Each structure stands twice: as C-alpha cells, then as structure tokens.
Amino acid sequence: MDLVNIGRPRYVNKLDQVKGLSEQERQQLQPVAEKFAFRTNDYYQSLIDWNDPDDPIRRIVMPDVQEMEEFGELDASDEHSYTRVKGLEHKYGDTALLLVNNVCGAYCRFCFRKRLFTDDNDEVTSDITDAVEYIRQHPEINNVLLSGGDPMIMSTAKLGRIIQQLRDIDHVRIIRIGTKMTAFDPYRILNDPSLLEMLSQYSLPDRKIFVMAHFNHPRELTEPALKGLQLLQKAGAITVNQSPLIRGVNDKPEIIAELFGRLSFNGVVPYYLFICRPTLGNEPYMVPVEKAFEIFEEARRRLAGLAKNARLCMSHRTGKVEVLGKLDGKIVFRYHRAPDPVDCGRVMIFDSDPAAAWLDDYLKPESVSYRVKTQAQTVSA
Fold this sequence. Notes:
It is a single chain. The chain has helices at residues 23-35, 42-45, 56-61, 129-136, 156-167, 181-184, 187-190, 193-202, 223-234, 253-265, 289-301, 360-363, 373-380; strands spanning 11-12, 40-41, 83-85, 88-92, 95-99, 143-147, 174-178, 209-213, 238-245, 269-275, 311-316, 319-327, 330-337, 347-351. It has a twelve-stranded mixed beta sheet with strand order 3-4-5-6-7-8-9-10-11-12-13-14. Helix 10 (253-265) packs across helix 11 (289-301). By secondary structure, it is α/β, with parallel strands linked by helices. The protein has two domains: 11-68, no CATH class; 79-380, TIM Barrel (Alpha-Beta Barrel).
C-alpha cells in the first residue's frame, strides 16, 4: 500500500473483512470479537506483518483468545465514582475529563474503557450542556481533557463547537485532546485543512491545546503519521505521547527507547508510560509492575534529554500512582496525583512481589486480585 498517497482508510468492523486471517483463525477469534468490540482500518492493517503471528501491530488491534479468560473488571479505575454529570468526570481538582464520543478509529484490545463500546452503555453524552455548565461553575478547573472514544474521529465542526464552548470559559487555560488517530488514521489530519484551521484558532499563546497522542510502538511512526504530527504542531498544538506498557507489543527496553527517542526527535515529548489497567479481558496484555519498572529504567538509560521525560504510572481508583524504584526487597510508589490534595506526593513502600500487576496486589496481598501468573513465571525464571 502507498502510505503517502492513500485517501481516507476503509474501516473494518468484521473479522471476515480481514484478509490476513485464515478461516480457522476467524472462527477461533469470532467469540472474542463478539464479546469485545472489534474495529480497525486498511491503513493500520497494512502495518502488520501477517507472516509473524506475534507481530506487535497485529497484537494491538486483532483479538486474542486469551481475552476470554476471567480476569479484571470493566471499570478497573472506578471512573464511575468520579462522574459528576453525564459525560464528565472530575477526579482531580484542577482537571475535568469529558467523554465526548464512544467511537475510535480502531479499538485497542487492551482498552481500559471498553465498557463504552457496549450496547447498553450510556456514559458518553452528545449534549455537553450540563458538563460545560459544571465546568463553568467550578473555577478551580483550568484543564479539560477531551476523551472517549476518540474526539478526533468526530467531524471538525462538532469538535470545534466543543472546543469553542470551553474557550469561552475564562478559567479553562488548557484543553487536551486524547487521541490515537495520529497512529490509527493520520489521514484524518492530512486530508482535513479545516481541522488545522480550527486548532490554530483556539490554541492561543497562553491558552494552549495539547494533543495527547497514543503511539505504542515505533512502527506506528510512519511517514504519514509523522507528517500529521508536524501539521498539528504547525497549527499551534503542543504534542505529547502517552502509552501503556503492553505484553508482546512494547515490553522490551529497546522498543520503548526507540519509541521515546523517535517521538522526541519529532517534537513529541513522552508524557506517561502506564501500567496496563486490569480491565476485563486484559490479562494477556499486562506486565507485572516490577518487571515494567525494570523495562522502563533500562529504556531510560538509553535515552537523553526530553526523551527521558515520561513517568511510569498506574491510573488507580485512588489516584495516579508513580512507580519510583526498588530497593532491598522493597518497591516504592508515590501519589503523583490524588483526588485529595493532601495525598499528592505521599510515598508508599511495600515488600517486593514480582507477580503483582496492580497496586491492589500490594494493598491486599491475601486476595486473588490481579496477579499475572504467566508473566510471574517469566520474571522469576
């Protein structure tokens, strides 16, 4: 496929539309695609090496039979508890999160909000009137994150109306757009000048728009993807990247180092590397916390400057927990963000547990919790 001159990609919602799968694979994966939403497109499919069953790009979007194992819960970070009005979460004092869409350019198999893509979910709102009014009535909110779903898959007109309403609120200084369209479908950016004009209009010298890109693997940084990032930057948007650490995708130091290095060379600062959340179906994608820390630190040793900027964190129900280090059989965490400002910066020290995949495994070591047994065997070997 000519990745430079392609038009808008063709979207794929059924396994029988994926040419790289055998009939036997389709039959095996169909129950998974029925349980958890499946969606991709021909541009992103073209990045897959179909001769490699362990191809990392394939692993990002193609179902895995291990997703059917009983593990995790749909709302692993208890986002429901922080919902104030429909479509709006307010967990941290200065930041509000707006769920403006329940569709993505493709669906990551390890998505932590896969609950939004079920038929009976009604968390997302198409009418943000109440959410905007909530933000207006809370002057402590200076930072609004648009998420979902993927805001960038919406029409520019609809996205622009949302951003315009937020720009009319004086105390909202930063608008962030969480998106993987820069990786899944860079032609959303390349073929729509009106998107760039809108961003240029509303990303102001002291009231910036941040594009929170989501690149998981260096192979996603294609020529069209990098060109799209350059256009976003030229339009005045600040570009950063956040990614989970995913087993079989980027759980090697050399991959993370290459990803962070290439992003920084192209003006995209690594922001967060997340521990994969223990969402329902996510067991085959999780990496134990301490193994993740080892990978992260080895990757950072290979990097310099802003490429070393990322923090390794968990988005736990009690706050954003940073993994700080290991020492003498102990693991050290710190609350990077917390709903209660008093907890920000609080340090927690636990006994090392190589099988632990989530903070709860340290808080409640006697419970079944979220240990990843298959990965633990590898860690202890």
